[in-house]
Design brief:
Number of strands: 25
Protein name: F-box domain-containing protein
Strand content: 25-35%
Radius of gyration: 29 Å
Shape: elongated
Length: about 500
């Protein structure tokens, strides 16, 4: 009886609501409802969203079959999950008639995920995807190659209403990318992923990102080997959010973005061993690259939140406080700064602290020391001056990746003895695996390190130190009259 009532309630709904429900199902699930009763036989043909999962061998047949029965004049969302792209035609123009059927329905949101399983599998993107008057969001995932005309004529591409574009991953750097971006006058969100190969990828020239309304930009460039450097020019006066993960390319601001609020620049390599092998080869051009990228970072002087991730071969800190035209570029709006130092160690802190001179109003600082550099790279060296922000504005500092050494204590003594307004100092030990026989000794060393740490003089009388180790968790509030109370993590053997 209850089941019958539920069926009656569903049948009582108007066709428009039932069609909307079917629009949110995968298309074959929606079509399967034809067997329910006579009334449902044609409801699925009026769906306004199309979710299709197929493979390369059946794609053309599936599209012809489905669109031959659809009656809705508008498809707002088209989502395609496509496997086995090698079975598709090798050139995008052979797919155009199929996609033209889709775009005739005034589609607004297109999401295509091409699931490439093999190294040489690509999806040739047909040009008609970039000539839609109605499209507002276009997201393409997979190993992408473009079958686009080599032209400087912006009229070849027509995306007047596009607001979000995601291309992830692009296998080449075609010249037409810049023209494509110019054809999107309303573009606000651009997400670019490049996956380049030394042998197969074509780098035809620089990438010009000229978008007057762009607010968010993400660029992620991966390379299986060292490739020719890509030059990326950014002309986006309204940019507020920038995210770059790329240690190969040269970046330029056509005009410095005065609206930039947050920036994350990751200059770390994916394969450290590759970086070590190439150090000697890169030495000639490395300084030029570091100088250039430090200049690019200085172009972000209006940013309020900056995240910079570097390693020894891309350490731009020594150049960050270089003087342009005889004066130091100050980041007066910067209040939050986070940095990751890979294989740099305490030796790099001298340059790092000097670079803080560029951030006179910094309030929150977070430093991650990742990996375990050689001991000779972990020697504390006192800088020639104390950065103004450490003395006057810093409130909260996070430092992770400590070893618990005497040099670590010297660094922390420098911070605590100069920070007038420091409220919290958060410290975390480098996470390491320790054999069972050495765990008790490691625990004792952490305990002794904390006692020495909490005895250090503090310029700020209200500063609280919070420590998190591999075994010991405690704070300066737990150190009273020479006695330390702490939480101890005990690992029991098998």
């Amino acid at each position: 009886m209850g089941k019958s009532n539920e069926e009656d309630k569903l049948s009582a709904l108007p066709d428009s609501i039932l069609t909307e429900i079917l629009s949110r199902l995968p298309i074959y699930s929606a079509a399967a409802t034809t067997v329910l009763c006579h009334r449902w036989r044609h409801l699925w043909t009026g769906v306004t969203r199309l979710n299709l999962s197929t493979d390369g061998s059946n794609f053309a047949q599936d599209v012809d079959n489905i669109f031959g029965q659809l009656t809705s004049p508008k498809i707002s969302n088209f989502e395609l999950i496509l496997s086995s792209p090698m079975e598709l035609p090798e050139q995008g123009d052979e797919l155009e008639p199929l996609f033209l059927d889709i775009f005739r329905r005034n589609v607004e949101h297109v999401y295509i995920d091409v699931q490439c399983c093999f190294y040489e599998e690509f999806f040739w993107v047909p040009a008609c995807l970039f000539t839609s008057q109605s499209l507002r969001v276009l997201e393409l995932h997979g190993m992408l190659k473009f079958d686009l005309p080599e032209t400087k004529d912006v009229d070849v591409f027509q995306l007047p209403n596009l607001k979000r574009l995601k291309l992830d991953y692009v296998a080449d750097v075609p010249l037409c990318l810049g023209i494509l971006f110019k054809s999107c006058p309303l573009l606000e969100d651009l997400d670019l992923g490049f996956k380049l190969d030394y042998v197969e990828s074509l780098i035809e020239g620089p990438v010009h990102i000229s978008c007057p309304n762009l607010k968010s930009l993400r660029v992620d460039l991966e390379s299986s080997r060292k490739t020719e450097a890509v030059r990326i020019h950014i002309d986006a006066p309204k940019l507020t959010n920038l995210d770059i993960r790329d240690c190969y390319s040269f970046y330029y601001f056509v005009q410095n973005p005065i609206t930039l609020a947050r920036a994350c620049v990751d200059l770390r390599r994916d394969d450290w061993e590759l970086a070590e092998d190439e150090d000697e080869e890169l030495a000639g051009g490395e300084i030029i690259y570091l100088q250039h990228m430090s200049k690019f970072i200085r172009g972000m002087s209006f940013v309020s939140n900056l995240d910079l991730k570097i390693e020894s071969s891309t350490n731009i800190l020594a150049y960050l406080n270089s003087m342009d035209d005889g004066f130091l570029q100050l980041f007066s709006s910067l209040t939050h700064f986070e940095t990751t130092l890979n294989f740099i160690g305490l030796n790099g802190w001298k340059d790092f602290l000097l670079s803080l001179q560029c951030f006179p109003n910094l309030k929150h600082l977070k430093v991650k020391m990742e990996d375990d550099p050689p001991l000779e790279h972990n020697k504390w060296c006192v800088p020639n001056c104390v950065p103004d922000c450490l003395v006057s504005t810093l409130n909260i500092v996070h430092i992770s990746g400590l070893h618990g050494s005497e040099d670590d204590l010297k660094l922390l003594e420098y911070v605590l003895s100069n920070a007038n307004n420091l409220e919290e100092l958060h410290l975390q030990m480098l996470r390491v695996s320790i054999i069972e026989e050495q765990k008790a000794d490691a625990m004792w060393q952490e305990f002794q390190f904390c006692k020495s740490l909490f005895k250090l003089p503090r310029r700020s009388s209200t500063c609280k130190i919070l420590f998190s180790g591999n075994y010991v968790t405690t704070s300066s509030n737990d150190f009273k009259r020479g006695r330390l109370t702490c939480q101890v993590q005990v690992y029991l053997g098998d």
